[in-house]
Amino acid sequence: MIEVIYALCLRQLKHYWRSKARLIGTLGQPMLFLIAFGFGFGPMYSKVSGGANYIDFLAPGIVTMGILFTAVFSGLEVIWDRQFGFLKETLVAPISRTEIMIGKTFGGATIAIIQGLIILILTSILGFRVPNITSLVIGLIFMFLIAIFFTGIGLTIASQMKDMQGFQMILNFLIMPIFFLSGALFPLENLPPAIYFISRIDPLTYGVDGLRGAITGISTFGVSSDLALIGSLSVIICLIGAVLFSRMEA
Fold it and tell me: Which residues span the membrane (predicted)?
């Protein structure tokens, strides 16, 4: 089992490393958001928050953004593999489909974490700093769980689709509201009740809040509560993905 998971994970990492355009391109949007929002809304945020630094608030949200988009679009590899015949060879191999799901999930999540770490390092250019090693370790746990959850979502959706364009349309329809309503760019306090309710049922809200609480100390719901929620959701989506993979046809 470990060998299968390792092989599938390594395959995705090699694809990622060999595609330099993908590596650089997926950093463009998060860095654009960081610079544009950081400098554009920084003075306004500082004024209404009593002098707080907006970059400290924004940086964890942008790191999460990088993880989110990279993780969820890892499902494209399943559709690519289906179109080029590799998925059929994998499914008929004498291995469990649960192992395939786990291997692809860990592969996609690992790539997403690498993207998140690169963005976290780049935020230091704008002055963001993680206070200590303990905060960084807790932050990495949240990054890992966010990556697992959204890689699982991407793979779960991809397992039921054969059309790449349709997959991208569905993800764009889902992911942008999930990101913008998660509190990554603005505080959740004092929102209209309807928007606040939607934010509370947005799974990324707890990932953003937990990561922000871990590495900046700014948390709305509490780091331990966020950890329990995002951890539980990650397990649930992986179980759902495993069931759907077991029923999948190449």
Answer: 21-45, 57-80, 101-127, 133-158, 170-188, 227-245
